[in-house]
Amino acid sequence: MAEKEGSAVPPQAKGSWGSFLKSIASFNGDLSTMTAPAFILSTKSLTEFSSYWTEHPAVFAAPAAEKDAAKRAMLVLKWFLSTLKQQYASRSEKLGSEKKPLNPFLGELFLGTWEDAAGTTQLVSEQVSHHPPVTAYSIWNSQQGVRLEGYNAQKASFKTTINVKQIGHAMLHLDEFDEDYLITLPSLHIESLITGSPYVELNGSTYIQSSTGFTARIDYSGKGWVSGKKNTFTAVLYPQGKEKEAIYKAEGQWTDSFQIKDAKTKAVVDTFDHKSMKTTPLTVAPIEEQDDFETRRAWKKVSDAINQGNMDLTSAEKTIIENRQREMRQQEKDSGREWERKFFTRALQFPLFEQLAKIVGEGINDSQTNGVWEFDQQKADAAKSPFHPDVNPPIYERK
Ligand SMILES: CC(C)CCC[C@@H](C)[C@H]1CC[C@H]2[C@@H]3[C@@H](O)C=C4C[C@@H](O)CC[C@]4(C)[C@H]3CC[C@]12C
């Protein structure tokens, strides 16, 4: 692949970017094995990405206060659409391009809370599998009675660019109505790879299926397809099985703004504009107070080395983590036990997921996610403090 004019690749990295582009043309689909040049490396691990679901806690909690079932489903759709920008474009917007995240190690955690007008919203994110890499999360606001749980893995392929299929799902629960929403995850591809300023574009369709009989379908399109604008979508919300009887329609740019209209009257019933909606920052414990498994503490030396642009130190620090992980896996193998996840457990039965997934043509891909992962309240209670020191001894010594 040749470099184009207008490249965003730093002059000293042109050679390594060229080699990287050649290498991904034949890579095996496991994103964790991809080695990328320093300037494209992120200091954040994928366990942190779970927080992108709730950067607007009030929008997340809004459906819990809506008495009308169709409007509730519309507010769930609105919240989902509002999360896409943080999930898929925040790196390219803040850092000038998409970056390659750190590959979480098994047991890695990201814990935090959001405090704002919606009250306290809590986040637990855990790497529940390393091969294949799978991140699970639970996000809840007890005052508002809303909880999101999910897990995801990624399967990548190369055809003209990097294409990524997400495997997994999210499930939103509203206590007041004992209502659940199954959320499927979009496929994506990387644009502008050749020029060295990669960004994410979403493609295909995803669904939100409620247990009370509403379906939302979201269709993603990029520049030049339908609207000529990047990051565009259209969405339709309808009574399950009656797609022609749309109740609400939404359209816009998931990185910018969108409108939701009453499908019959065409009246605008709700809007969302990222320019006027401030995100609530997530509060995370200071690094010195974090557990050794918490991502920012565990990866600190690697992140510092990336920030210094010191690739030798970056790989040396990564190797320390990887070797320790290998030792731990060996110890587990020798003692015939599996790593005990701190907050999640493999579900043996998942009737609700099966019931909702069937409606939107989704299936269980547990072989690709090393199981179907569920938040385990008993483990969470036990993990409060201290972090199960008897089950999983700390892996990184505090200095
Ligand atoms: C930038 C390029 C050169 C290297 C490829 C990096 C590749 C591993 C990254 C790029 C985009 C990443 C997506 C990200 O956009 C958003 C999400 C949503 C989040 O909820 C779960 C993770 C996921 C799918 C990231 C996975 C890693 C991706 C594909």
UniProtKB/TrEMBL annotation:
GO MF: oxysterol binding
Source organism, top-level taxon: Eukaryota
Record SUPFAM superfamilies: Oxysterol-binding protein-like (SSF144000)
InterPro entries, A to Z: OSBP_sf, Oxysterol-bd, Oxysterol-bd_CS
Matching Pfam families: Oxysterol_BP (PF01237)
Gene Ontology annotations of biological process type: intermembrane lipid transfer
Segments for region (Disordered): 378-399
PROSITE patterns: OSBP
A GO CC annotation given for this chain: membrane
Family indicated by similarity: Belongs to the OSBP family.
Name of the protein: Oxysterol-binding protein
Organism: Clathrospora elynae
